[in-house]
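pls ignore typos typing on phone
magnesium ion + seq
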Amino acid sequence: MALIVQKYGGTSVKDSDRLREVAKWVVKNKAEGNQMVVVVSAPGGMTDSLIKRAEEVHKTPSGRELDRLLSVGEQISASLLAMAIGELGYKAVSLTGPQLEIKTTNEFNNAKILGISSEKIVERLEAGYIVIVTGFQGIDEDGSITTLGRGGSDTTAVAVGAAISADQVEIYTDVDGVYTADPRIVEDARKLSSLSFIEMIEMAGKGAKVLHCRSVELAAKYGIDIHLRSAFSWEEGTWIRGSEKMEKAAVRGITHVKGVAKITVDQLESNGSLGDVMDVIEARGSDILLINQGLTREGQFEISLLLKEEEAVRVAELLRERLGGGNLSLKPSLGMVSAVGIGIRSNRLQGRVARVVNNEEMRVEMISSSETSLSYVVEGAQVDRLKKLMHYELIEKSLSA
Ligand code: ADP
Ligand code: ASP
Ligand code: MG
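k done
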């Protein structure tokens, strides 16, 4: 008998047919003698449409009210799945983040989990129930509902797995594994049978939205293996775990993020200004994708930051207020393409990519390189092309060599 946490994403619970399929699979696992906890996302598209509804009535809705609204999608899936399981003759109970006391920080729209009271889950499991948990949400110390950021149900699943010391965390989605690039964009992308936590953290952090980055960070911290697999084929998927044998190819995947913008603040007299800039960004709780600080020949400082476009617009306004603004520029509609793997520098991959990009005459806005990733920021319209070129140069060529 194993203690299993399964998480189902939006497409997997989109409608009643899908809910019935999921219910059958959960019940099959239960009938095999396992204790089952199931974390669900909102039905596909619902979170987007709730955000749209909110923005129809207020240009910048308050974080508290928006989170309160967004938490509803997951609650709908959870109750419906409990009913679908009940229909198959099994006992199921659905619980919301607040009911389970999933305590979080009060950073609305991007809250971090502080703790989960495992007894509430365990007592129901022991009473024979399949426990269904709403993903993506918790409660702050004032009792307000918070959400964990887009894609956050993965993080709920791993956090629940850690809290109850689950034997297995399975993330079910609409692809059958983690691929060397988004299979919906790069047709030649290959499925990976396994990859290490660090590789997956880099891939998720650089835009592979197949897993919420913080879910993999938590899995690494608590040593929980993740099995990412399909809720459509139910086949074996990709394992993300601590110890992985190195494969021949240094690069494991090419990721991308679209809809990003670059903020540049120049003519700064002191490098202390970077601290002011960071104060503003941290107070807003925005994630920075890339950061560069340089010194011009005239001895002035220049800071460039890459953020998601909506965030960049707000951060730019705040920075203008704080720094007096004339030297700030915002470049929207950019994208970032990254190669992720271990040994980027030692395998001298920077030059290979630079030559490919030169041949294409792409306008490169920023580059960042480390031992585990190499990122290029280009015009949004160039992202798919660059992604295919990098996939060919760094993955397909190496595998066929
Ligand atoms: P869910 O709703 O189940 O959480 P998501 O839409 O968040 O699903 O994530 C699954 C999607 O991630 C896939 O449909 C795929 O387009 C995308 N994706 C991006 N990068 C990758 C990758 N490297 N491997 C597999 N899927 C990827
Ligand atoms: N429903 C949320 C979203 O669409 C959370 C999730 O699906 O993980 O972002
Ligand atoms: Mg997701």
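DSSP finds eleven helices and 18 strands in the chain. The chain has two domains: 3-174, 253-400. more later
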